[in-house]
Amino acid sequence: MVIKTATFVKSSGKWQECPEPNMPEYAFIGRSNVGKSSLINAMMNHKDLAKTSGTPGKTQLINHFLVNENWYLTDLPGYGYAKVSKSIRKDFEKLITNYILNRKNLVNLFVLVDSRHKPQAIDLEFIQWCGESGVPFSIVFTKVDKLKPNTAIQNVEHYKAELHKTWEDLPEIYVTSAEKKEGCDEILHFIQKTNEFLINNSVSFDE
């Protein structure tokens, strides 16, 4: 997929405030500091489309971007904030879950996981929730450029082994580096093929 245009549409504090659900939508989510904004910018060939920050939890709203005038890319708040109060954390969790469960044009959720770490309970719990909730999703390992190739492979395989304890079949898995743009084309190819499938099967999200 060639990215011709990628423009910011709006930020929403409630899922009901999101843009009209009339196009396919692909959302990105992960723990704070997983490299979500950097990966989005790398995919879109745009240095600062999604705002990056050294402060985990900077994204506190649902941010929509219109890509190629025909699909939405959504930057969701991260989960697992360590430095915010429990009440604020619950507000974020409510915002995220309500969006994921109610956004009718959400075609796929990309769950980002930091490849540098061993499987984290919070990631495994979120992935389990997606499965139990019937949410279509893929797993995206980030920051593989920070590791030696063999270590990156081992960490991903370790994660797969952990998931296989409760999952018979795993979702699509992508291994990425925002810095080197590794894996970006594969994700965009998946989005393009999915959009083509929706068009060919006359799937409409309009009321």
From TrEMBL:
Its cofactor is Mg(2+). CDD domains: YihA_EngB (cd01876). Necessary for normal cell division and for the maintenance of normal septation. This is Probable GTP-binding protein EngB. One of its GO terms (biological process) is division septum assembly. The keyword Membrane does not apply. The gene is engB. PANTHER family: ENGB-TYPE G DOMAIN-CONTAINING PROTEIN, MSS1/TRME-RELATED GTP-BINDING PROTEIN. Keywords: Cell cycle, Cell division, GTP-binding, Magnesium, Metal-binding, Nucleotide-binding, Septation. One of its GO terms (molecular function) is GTP binding. The keyword Cell division applies. Transmembrane segments: none annotated. The lineage of its organism: Bacteria, Pseudomonadati, Bacteroidota, Flavobacteriia, Flavobacteriales. Belongs to the TRAFAC class TrmE-Era-EngA-EngB-Septin-like GTPase superfamily. EngB GTPase family. It comes from Chryseobacterium hagamense. Residues 22-197 form the EngB-type G domain.
